[in-house]
């Protein structure tokens, strides 16, 4: 039975084209009471009536008008009501603080040449890095999310290298963590008013993925091992990895960045609301 009493949290939102050439919105909502997922679609007419800010990740909404399927796990939405607006991401002070913490980790790199290489990339691209999201939908998808994700990765690496992986080259691991997603500052665009994220088509026309970008800049600078760690961080070729971790006789170090990245994506501060 249709109910307007249920509060839903926005999980993901995207707009695509129908076969007839009109726009169609895809909205994934989570019931705030039981965490059940509701997949919604909206035709162009409904989209045109709604403010794009409604679809910000983390927003709490109610479905005012819509039609459900028999299992109540899909809905054709006609109108929505905003109950609580989510933050778009880190505020300016938080962004500067996260950037400063990342610079502190760069300064922990003992190899002066490598430190200068990583620091140069961060300083040259600071303004983009301050606002870049960590992903479009899956994790850290908010203003400044990439810095949060990257800082989680270097912290995970530091703890694990101190306890379990003492024989790995700490400089290389830090550099790989700091640069594994650096291509995302070009791969995504983010609307600073609405918080909505999209792909940068210019980047996608020139590069395959952000992994390819990170791999390429490290290779060109002569840091082949770091480049290969970045190439493997997605784990499997069908997940976007350039180096598949199923490759025979692959050195154990190439698994490390993948697992660190995966922990942050799954268990870190994936939603800006977790930052307080």
Question: What is the topological layout?
Answer:
Blueprint: E1 8-17, E2 23-31, E3 37-43, H1 44-49, E4 60-68, E5 74-84, H2 92-106, H3 112-124, H4 126-131, H5 145-163, H6 170-179, H7 184-187, E6 188-190, E7 197-199, H8 201-206, H9 210-220, H10 224-231, H11 253-267
Parallel strand pairs: 3-5
Antiparallel strand pairs: 1-2, 1-4, 2-3, 4-5, 6-7
Helix pairs in contact: 2-5, 5-6, 5-11, 6-10, 9-10
Molecular structure report:
There is one protein chain. It contains 11 helices and 7 strands. It is an alpha+beta fold. α5 runs antiparallel to α6, α6 packs across α10 (224-231) and α9 (210-220) runs antiparallel to α10 (224-231). The protein is elongated, with a radius of gyration of 20 Å. It starts with 7 loop residues before the first strand and ends in a 9-residue tail after the last helix.
């Amino acid at each position: 039975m249709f109910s307007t009493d249920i509060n839903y949290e926005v999980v993901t939102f995207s707009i695509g084209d129908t076969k007839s050439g009109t726009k169609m919105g895809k909205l994934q909502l989570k019931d705030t009471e039981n965490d059940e997922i509701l997949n919604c679609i909206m035709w162009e007419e409904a989209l045109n009536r709604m403010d794009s800010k409604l679809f910000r990740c983390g927003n709490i909404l109610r479905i005012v008008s819509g039609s459900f399927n028999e299992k109540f796990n899909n809905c054709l939405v006609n109108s929505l009501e905003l109950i609580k607006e989510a933050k778009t991401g880190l505020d300016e002070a938080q962004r500067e603080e996260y950037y400063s913490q990342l610079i502190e980790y760069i300064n922990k790199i003992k190899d002066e040449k490598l430190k200068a290489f990583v620091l140069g990339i961060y300083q040259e691209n600071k303004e983009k890095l301050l606002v870049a999201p960590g992903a479009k939908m899956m994790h850290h998808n908010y203003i400044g999310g990439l810095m949060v994700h990257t800082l989680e990765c270097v912290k995970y690496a530091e703890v694990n290298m101190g306890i379990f992986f003492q024989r790995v080259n700490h400089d290389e691991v830090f550099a790989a963590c700091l640069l594994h997603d650096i291509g995302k500052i070009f791969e995504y665009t983010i609307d600073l008013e609405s918080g909505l994220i999209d792909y940068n088509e210019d980047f996608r026309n020139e590069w395959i993925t952000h992994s390819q970008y990170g791999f390429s800049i490290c290779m060109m600078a002569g840091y082949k091992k770091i480049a290969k760690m970045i190439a493997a961080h997605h784990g499997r070729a069908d997940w976007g990895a350039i180096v598949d971790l199923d490759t025979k006789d692959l050195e154990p170090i190439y698994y490390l960045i993948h697992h660190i990245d995966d922990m942050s994506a799954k268990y870190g501060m994936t939603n800006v609301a977790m930052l307080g």
